[in-house]
Every structure is written in C-alpha cells, then in structure tokens.
Amino acid sequence: MNAGELTELLHEEPFEPFRVRLSSGDTYEVHNPDLAVVMRSRLFLAFPGTDRQRPWKKTQALAAKCKSLTGQGAP
Q1: Mean pLDDT, to the nearest integer, of 24-33?
Q2: pTM of the model
Q3: Average pLDDT, stretch 10-33?
Q4: Which residues partner with 44 through β-bridges?
Q5: Quick one: CA torsion of 66, 19, 25, 3, rounded to 10 degrees?
Q6: Which of 12, 23, 25, 70 could cross-link 64 (Cys pair, CB 3.0–4.6 Å)?
Q7: How many CA atoms lie within 13 A of 9 on its CB side?
Q8: Which of 12, 51, 57 is nearest to 36 (CA)?
Q9: Cβ contacts of 22 within 8 Å, gap of 6 or more
Q10: Who contacts 74 (Cβ-Cβ below 8 Å, separation ≥6)?
Q11: pLDDT at 74
C-alpha cells in the first residue's frame, strides 16, 4: 500500500475505521482520520487520552495492509 492509497482511506466519506498492519508486523487501529498523517514513506499516528508512554507513534514504514474494523467495505 502506498501513501496515496492510505491517504484515500483517510479521506473517504463517510470515514470507515480500519486497522493498519505495517511491514514490520505491528498493527494500529485508526478510528479518527484527523489523528493520522501520511508522509511519503511513514505514517504518524496520535493516541490522545490514552495511557501510552507516548501519545503518538511515527512508523518506520507505510502500511503493508489495511482492514476495515466495521466489516463494511474492504480497505
């Protein structure tokens, strides 16, 4: 999945939450498109209001695969 495809998922109307799996195998859920920023080869995710040590994550690589969390559609 490239940056353009990931950006399209974030701008879909209505937005559909999804799980992103990175090439490293790490997974993250995106519930709000305003808390994700796609860069050329990285993904920046924010986790406000959580007990995470850092309320953000800058990935080292873009997504290898995305999957819908609602079961409707097929990101």
Answers
A1: 87
A2: 0.71
A3: 88
A4: 37, 58
A5: 50
A6: 23
A7: 27
A8: 57
A9: 28, 43, 59, 60, 61, 62, 63, 64
A10: 68
A11: 45
Q: Provide the residue type at 48 as one letter.
A: P
Q: If pLDDT is split at 50, 70 and 90, which confidence band does 23 have? A: confident
Q: 8 φ, ψ to 5°? A: -60, -40
Q: Where are the domains of the chain?
A: 3-68
What are the angstrom distances between the C-alpha of 62 and each of 22, 23, 26, 53, 72? 6, 7, 11, 22, 23
- In order, the DSSP letters of the chain are --HHHHHHHHT-SS---EEEEETTS-EEEE--GGGEEE-SS-EEEE-TTS--SSSEEE-SS-EEEEEESSSSS--
